[in-house]
Amino acid sequence: MTTILIVEDNEKNMKLARDVLQAKGYQTLEAVNGEDGVRMALEHKPDLVLMDIQLPDINGIEAFIRIRANADTAHVPVVAFTASVTPMDRSRITDAGFDGFISKPINLKEFVETVRTMIADKAP
Fold it and tell me: Each residue of 71-123: pLDDT tens digit?
């Protein structure tokens, strides 16, 4: 089964993402801060990580860098999942090397399509 790690500190955003993904047949893991997100990515090696950028401890970009720095998770696609949509924020996210971008509030069709595209060879 395809596993997606959601790193999100907002309870409503987490619930929406989890419910949509589970309804589509994906298994989900959840982390509410960057440190836990990195730990869970290393521990579970998910098929995809949805990473919020504004997190209470380390930000999503730092968490992404740590995930990519580890040989066991360097290949895992990481999609920025954020309300930070200013041109400067988008540039920072793109420059960091994220595999994709999903803005919040989410458009359900775009959300599902982006997830499906990122794990096309592992889709349920």
Answer: 999 999 999 998 877 888 888 998 999 999 998 999 999 999 999 999 985 54
Give the Cα separation of 14 and 72 in Å (integer).
25
- Please, what are the domains in the chain? 3-84+97-119 (3.40.50.2300)
The burial class, CB within 10 Å (0-12 / 13-18 / 19+), for 99 is middle
Q: How many CA atoms are closer than 13 Å to the CA of 48, on its beta-carbon side?
A: 28
96 and 64 Cβ atoms separated by less than 8 Å: yes
Residue 29: strand pairing partners: 5
The pLDDT tens digits for 12-67 are: 999 999 999 999 999 999 999 999 999 999 999 999 999 999 999 999 999 999 99
Buried b (16+ CB within 10 A) or exposed e, 5-44: bbbbbeeebbebbbebbeeeebebbbbbbbbbbbebbeee
